[in-house]
Design brief:
The protein has 9 helices and 21 strands. The strands form 3 sheets. Strands 1, 2, 9, 10, 11, 12, 13, 14, 20 and 21 form a 10-stranded mixed β-sheet that branches. Strands 6-7-5-16-17-18-15-19 form an 8-stranded mixed β-sheet, sandwiched between helices. Helix 1 packs parallel to helix 5 (157-170), helix 1 (22-35) packs across helix 8 (372-383) and helix 2 packs across helix 5 (157-170). Helix content is 26%, strand content 28%. By secondary structure, it is of the alpha/beta class. The structure holds flavin-adenine dinucleotide (FAD).
Length: 413
């Protein structure tokens, strides 16, 4: 926990961000660029803990998406990641190239190609033989197509979250960890403006003019702590925390699975039978990371951390055996992680309806890490009132904020 000396004397923060995963840490950074030490980032556990969604060594980043609005947003994200790397002097992105694949009759793979064409994303559509010629350890079935994208790669997850926290701190942001927020009371100040009295377990009451909730799988629990003057906030978001299993598979020829020198790509299988993705052998030189997107719903405070045997046996192991040459039949070890799923797997990024100055970023749905800085700029933009048009458009429409509703996603390239 880093508490600058002026913390006690800072009477009212301009903005407080609750939850220091990738969404909250990047939001705090972008806010701190404008607001300096009038911002605080608060985390219930240690910074960079392993109980949420943003920890670990690798997340896939890519411009290729079946939804063209995400391809569009990712163009901005790539720029923001690279600016943050330059400012911090850290390297958190490893460009490995990426392979999206699926059987030819899978609509998502054709949507990936259409979105890449629309936004001029460099890509190659490959036959299984062409994929195998480039990556001898990948053997796609005959009825599959591959889409290779050179821009894809790996983001070093925990290092990247730490990077945004450190950049925010350099701008004066107050970083408080092991501080669980137990109540967010919405009050009026002497000028009649809304203010938030945020009660934490370790820092008493922290007062702020704006409050951003980026609490990942705990988002609903955090919203349930909002106390309006008229009583408890009644807002149920359609979010479902999901426990997923990260699997590492031993490979016989590590040099052929390495992400270095583009010998092996990050990969995603869009086939209806296999919602599976993975990264090259980077964390451990002889272990390929390959996981399922599926898993059971969970309560983030009562997880069992057990591996998802069903997903491994029914989905990941069959795909691994079908597609990769020289790989172990079972994972040699597994880790547990969490997604926060929205019904359509789109993120929720908006103002809480009816509560001026309260914002939420959530529903990462297993694909928000790469978009962290874009979501951070949006939330910071709402908070400092530079993105008013977003607020008009996405007002918890049907209880799910659809970034796709934003008019500018439909503009032509
Ligand atoms: C195994 C796995 C693989 C993934 N792969 C990819 C990938 O390849 N590419 C990609 O783009 N995305 C990927 N994702 C998804 C991505 O990592 C998540 O969407 C993203 O990290 C979500 O970040 P977040 O900030 O919303 O949530 P979190 O990282 O969970 O952060 C929320 C934080 O809020 C804190 N908090 C909650 N309640 C309180 C409170 N009351 N007081 C204070 N603090 C609180 C929590 O402790 C937590 O630290 C993957 C996720 C997993 C689990």
């Amino acid at each position: 926990m880093i508490v600058p000396r002026d913390m006690e004397t800072s009477k009212v923060f301009e903005a407080v961000v609750i939850g220091a995963g990738i969404m909250g840490s990047s939001t705090a950074y972008f806010l701190s660029k404008k607001l300096g030490n009038r911002v605080a980032l608060i985390e219930q556990f240690d910074f960079l803990h392993r109980r949420g969604s943003s920890h670990g060594d690798s997340r896939i980043t890519r411009l290729t998406y079946p939804q063209e609005y995400y391809t569009f947003l990712m163009k901005t994200s790539y720029e923001l990641w690279s600016e943050a790397e330059a400012e911090s002097g850290l390297n958190v992105f490893i460009q490995t190239g990426g392979l999206d694949f699926a059987s030819k009759d899978t609509p998502a793979i054709h949507n990936v190609i259409a979105a890449a064409k629309k936004w001029n994303i460099s890509h190659e559509v490959l036959t299984p033989a062409e994929v195998n010629a480039r990556f001898p350890t990948i053997t796609l079935p005959e009825n599959y197509i591959g889409v290779y994208s050179p821009a894809s790669g790996v983001l070093k997850a925990s290092k990247a979250v730490g990077m945004f926290q450190n950049l925010a701190r350099k701008n004066g942001c107050h970083l408080l960890d092991n501080a669980n927020i137990v109540e967010i009371a919405v009050k009026k100040d002497s000028n009649g403006e809304e203010i938030f009295e945020i009660t934490s377990t370790t820092h008493g009451i922290i007062t702020a003019k704006k409050c951003v909730i980026t609490a990942g799988a705990w988002t609903q629990k955090a919203l349930d702590k909002v106390q309006l003057r008229s009583g408890k906030l009644s807002l149920t978001l359609p979010l479902k925390p999901r426990q997923v299993t990260v699997c590492y598979w031993e490979v016989a020829a590590p040099e052929k699975f390495s992400g270095i020198n583009k010998t092996f790509p990050v990969f995603i299988c869009y086939d209806d039978k296999y919602h599976v993705y993975g990264t090259p052998a980077l964390e451990f030189p002889n272990l390929l990371k390959c996981c399922s997107h599926e898993g059971p719903n969970c309560d983030p405070d009562k997880r069992d951390f057990y591996p998802g045997v069903q997903e491994i046996e029914n989905e990941v192991a069959p795909l691994v055996q079908k597609v990769f040459v020289g790989i172990s039949p079972k994972p040699v070890f597994t880790e547990s992680c969490m997604y926060t799923m929205s019904p359509d797997e789109d993120y929720i990024v908006d103002q809480v309806p009816g509560v001026q100055g309260l914002y939420v970023g959530a529903g990462g749905s297993g694909h928000a890490f790469k978009m962290g800085p874009t979501i951070g700029t949006m939330l910071a933009g709402f908070t400092v009132n530079t993105y008013k048009h977003f607020i008009c458009i996405c007002k918890f429409t049907e209880m799910v904020i659809c970034l796709k509703l934003l008019g500018w996603f439909t503009q032509t390239a």
